Amino acid sequence: MKRIGLLGGMSWESTAEYYRLANELVRERLGDLHSAEVVMVSLDFAVIERLQVSGDWDEAGRRLADEALRVEAAGADLLVLCTNTMHKVAESIEAATSIPFLHIADTTAAAIRREGITRIGLLGTAFTMEQDFYRDRLTSLGLEVLIPDAPDRAEVHRIIYEELVLGVVTEPSRATYRAVIERLVAAGADGIILGCTEIELLVGQQDSSVPVFPTTRLHVEAAVDAALAEAVAIP
Predict the structure, then answer these.
(1) Beta bridge partner(s), residue 214
(2) Which residues, 6 or more positions from 13, have their beta carbon under 8 angstroms from its beta carbon?
(3) 107-136: pLDDT as tens digits
(4) Binning pLDDT at 50, 70 and 90, where does residue 232 land?
(5) Closest by alpha carbon to 13, among 165, 206, 183?
(6) What is the top-level taxon of the source organism (predicted)?
(7) Architecture of 105-214 per CATH?
(8) What is the C-alpha to C-alpha distance for residues 114 and 112, in angstroms, rounded to an integer?
């Protein structure tokens, strides 16, 4: 089994899901007492959030690249960045490291294409929905991306930063997300990307009339696929 490297803490609420899912999937596939081989560096999200708000993405990229090197030095065979938004600095991380980097937009786009969907709605932080680093990656992979209107984007973003990253899950916020999803469907979306790793704490397939694509789970599944590509279960 290859060792999965997790660069997390952004936020730790969703990073905990990465760790849980990786171990559950390995146990499902290999059985018995098997669990995932994982190394992780978890950052202080308050520091990264301040860099996001100030727009200092260069410094954010330097910090994440340095921490990714720590993950690699700890013995990781592949690297998973446990956040959608910070894939804005993915190039800095890839340039600094020598192990394979699994891009969350790539794993998500592959799942969408397998379902035969090309017109997709995107939920995430304002950075992910409004900036081009994520949408352009999806577009380059053959997808047409729809985003909510400005008031909906603001509310989706607010709920992430004021509630979900703090582990707060409420029914009013779930109802808000359901309404935003249905407005995207009415605008022509044939599927919905849950494009922030915390969103899966709030909504899932049961909250949408069209297929949803949970980026956290899809990202972990791709990591486990890579980790187990040559693994043999020990009886």
Answers:
(1) 194
(2) 164, 165, 166, 167, 198, 201
(3) 999 999 999 999 999 999 999 999 999 999
(4) low
(5) 165
(6) Bacteria
(7) 3-Layer(aba) Sandwich (3.40)
(8) 5
Tell me the HSE value of 53 on the side-chain side, using a 13 A CA sphere. Answer: 8
Domain 4-103+218-229 indexed as CATH 3.40.630.30: no
Alpha-carbon gap, residue 67 to 61, rounded angstroms: 10
For the sheet with 78-81, list strands across it: 38-42, 4-8, 78-81
Sequence-ordered list of residues with C-beta below 8 angstroms from that of 162, at least 6 positions apart, any chain: 168
Domain residue limits, the chain: 4-103+218-229, 105-214
**Active-site residue 197, yes or no?**
no
Catalytic site residue from 15, 82, 83, 97: 83
Please tell me whether residue 167 adopts helix, strand or coil conformation.
coil
Residue 235 pLDDT level (bands cut at 50, 70, 90)? low
What values do phi and psi take at 104, rounded to 5?
-65, -35
C-alpha 207/C-alpha 33 separation (Å) is 34
85, 125, 128, 196: which one is catalytic? 196
DSSP assignments along 157-183, one per residue:
HHHHHHTGGGT---HHHHHHHHHHHHH
Contact 27, 35 (CB under 8 A): yes
Rounded to whole angstroms, the Cα distance separating 155 from 174 reads 12
Q: Compute the distance between CA of residue 208 and CA of residue 32 in angstroms, rounded to an integer.
A: 35
Catalytic (active site) residue 196: yes
Q: Do domains 4-103+218-229 and 105-214 have the same CATH topology?
A: yes
Cβ atoms < 10 Å from Cβ of 95: 10
